[in-house]
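Re: that chain you flagged

S.,

Sorry for the slow reply, it's been a week of failed gels. I finally had a moment to sit down with the sequence you sent. For the record, here it is as I used it:
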Amino acid sequence: MKIALAQLNMEFENKPKAMQVCTQMMADAHRQNADLIVFPEMTLTGFTMKPEQYGEHAENSETISFFQKQAIKNHIAVVFGVIFLEDGKARNHSIVMDHTGIVLANYAKIHPFSYGAEAKHYVAGDTLVNCKVCGATLAPFVCYDLRFPEIFQAASKKSQIMTVIANWPVARVGHWITLLQARAIENQSFVVGVNRSGKDATLTYTGDSMLVSPTGAVLAHLTKENELAVVEIDLQEVADYRDTFPLKADRKEELYCRLFAKD
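Prediction finished late last night. Pasting the structure tokens below so you have them in one place:
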């Protein structure tokens, strides 16, 4: 399976510009025979706190329509971020779409970033999702979710690949790099972390998008603006490593639940 990491500078709250760059990146990924391309969080807007202005309704989403057209044109599956509005509430979503434009998974970020005021503008999701795409079982996550290992443990029971799309600023990028490797190692899964590059209204982003193997090996590490890297992975590596080093068999989830429940 070939995965394209698309480290995008979407230019803050500029959808037309972001669409232009995404179109180019998807065409480039197609030329390199990628099966799946992964874009950053809030792909076409950046990390905006204006969901009332940039949010969309799922049933007539401009972002969904755009990526459907590009997925079909380039015969490539895609993971991207979008803001959805429902019942007067906004949620930060990661979408997994196949090469025919069908939405396979729709995940709402479980942990809005309260430190950065996201929780004032977006409500949390409460459901893990996974889907089968390009022959792999994949679970999507969003940015701040990376700091909460419990949900990755739950998702990795059914998933070979976990994607984390992000707008993770340079001030804490060391955490991003460390946590991506940690989530891969402790879950014995491929982890694909795709961060934005460039600047928004107040923050700078270096990207540092990464693809990490189940053993923690860094298979790709991006450092440039609007950079694309295509990496081929062997999904069998997940099953083989879990068989030879059966880490998950030693987990004690019932005990962990009791420990969490204690005062």
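What I noticed first: The first helix runs from residue 15 to 31.

Talk soon,
D.
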